[in-house]
Amino acid sequence: MPGTTATAPGKIILFGEHAVVYGQPAIAAPVRQVGIQATVTPALRAPKGSVQIQAPIVGLDAELNSLPEGHPVAEVLRLLFARTKVVRVPAFNLRISGNIPVAAGLGSGAAVSVAILRAVSAFLGRPLEDAAVNDLAFEIEKIYHGTPSGVDNTVITYARPVYYVKGKPLELLRVGKPFEIVIGDTGIASPTSQTVGNVRKHWLAQPEKFESLFANVGALVQAARQAIEEGKPEKLGELMNNNHQYLCAMGVSAPALDKLVTAARSAGAAGAKLSGGGGGGNMIALVQTGTASAIQAALEAAGAVRTLHTTIQ
Ligand code: PMV
Question: Which burial class, exposed, middle or buried, applies to 41 when counting CB atoms under 10 A from its CB (0-12, 13-18, 19+)?
């Protein structure tokens, strides 16, 4: 049995995070500057069923059977074995590597799941279709996030910009004119399950306020979709600024995020917002061609531990 390798990109949410958990649309895009790689090699001398996992990015070096129930890497393998109906699993080593920062809003968890599903299913001779990869990765997102919308696993599985509504068929987004964004990382790890849980608490306490915030975000996402498809990305800056305001009203921003958002705007970005779960993690800024490095420098001066420049196309 030959070894196999698969990769999965990072992702960024352009519009609609949090509201997407409550049925509103979101727009997300892959970020290919970062990614996760899963490599499977046969362990010829090990007994059947032995699976040795090394994932230095999450400090993991363990035999599959020693991992507790609910461990996301173990569960992705267990789900995969069940789905592919492979009973006698040949011994293998699984190595997971990559450069997507963990708990930063770049989709590291979903990318790990997708890369593992692709590499291991191919190794077993039962390569999964995208739809199956997406389904199984969604199951694992529930472990990471509690009540995920499914946007992360979807954009990472299909590795294309998506317009996503929970429970609805996938809609790939046609980008009329490519546009550039800069991503700034606060360096503050903020588990998505926590901010998603906080929003749920506030929504239960103030349903009317939150329903109206979610609906406003939904309307803004529709406008963003239209601008992206019509090739009018210059309209996105203001929509990003408005989306950030709504996220602040939901209570998911943080001083470090607001500082980076303000710094990007002062340095000439057409708009900026937090991206992903919030509380820390990343923000994004819409930049004009030729201005990215100045905005990256401004973000770094304002405390960003890492910046990325990517084109959405
Ligand atoms: O923190 P991230 O980028 O994984 O973003 C999660 C996006 C949320 O809308 C906050 C949650 C979800 O499941 O959609």
Answer: middle
